[in-house]
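Chain A, query sequence.
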Amino acid sequence: MAAVIWLPCVHFFFRPDVSEFLDSDGISPKARRLSQRHVRLWTEADLREAALAKIRTANAEWDFMGRSFFVWSLANMAIRDEQFRPDALRAMDAIIDETIRLERDEDMYFFLMPYARRRPWVLSPARSQFIDGEIALMLALRQLVEEKSEYKPLLVERVRIMIERMEKSPVLSAESYPDECWTFCNVIAVSAIRINGHLDGADHSEFINDWLETAKTRLIDRKTGLLVSSYTLDGKHLDGPEGSSIWMVTHCLSLLDEDFARDQYKRATEHLGRSILGFGYAREWPDSWTGPMDIDSGAVVPGMGLSVGASGMAFIAAATFDDKQFYRSLATSLEFAGMPIEDNTGLRYETSNQVGDAVLLYSMSLGPAWQKVRERHKP
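Chain A, predicted structure.
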């Protein structure tokens, strides 16, 4: 009897006020404290080297994605708060410059998992859309905040290369790994292409519309209506819908096709969004399909299908579509299981890592960049 009374009440002790995480008019308290630690990581060499060495022992991709999500977060925060802009721009430039230098000096494999070398790439020369797309979006959002002449040709050239390679595929996609295309990576690339058009007036609308129509007709899982997560260069589906992928995909689609994005978000919440006793989470797979656990999904809880990777990405989608109820339930789980720690370096979550905290920060800050691009294209 005590359990029946007590268990449904536990979440009340951890349920936060959503305004701690999300602020439509500025930078929320949580976002400010979380960003404080990450800014220090990129301005203090000792902290940065220790953090990067730790995360790279687990996965080189996480090192790269931590950089990407943090730069994207800073761009939105810089638009929200002009006083924060100088600090944000310095950190963005430091991350972008070092990331491009490492890509040039160490090659793309520095940020890829080892299996990238195990078989030949289909397109030649070998390039990863994972790397190209996220660097392009870093550059595009940096330019959206404030143009920097040195970055303009870098962005234009990377966009040219991405479009050229994507047009060689019948599904308008480029490989992230050998003969392995990811919707996550390609929709990020298309978002960067869209922002580049906003910045320099280049008309990529035909290409973007063709990509969207191809995705709707060739990359949809029949049972759920959700976009699949991975496929070959010629469009053969490899992995079905995955929570660690689809939530970010819906966010990017909101910049490209709002109706399609909302449809995908509605389906994702139906098939993957869950709440138990007030604690929200996301499944990695729908009931109709189960894939292998990997570095993106993390360990998946049997029966529940709960994935930490999917749940983290769900914050981004919930914030994008102003789903405060789902966001609050996810934040309740975060405050319970994430073990938040605050000290003189800022806020961090003990059970998270650099990329996990950066994803959370992006969910708290997103909005202004997408809105800035949309406003220009309104009739």
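DSSP finds 15 helices and nine strands in the chain. The beta strands are 181-182, 230-231, 237-239, 273-276, 279-282, 300-301, 306-307, 340-343, 346-349.
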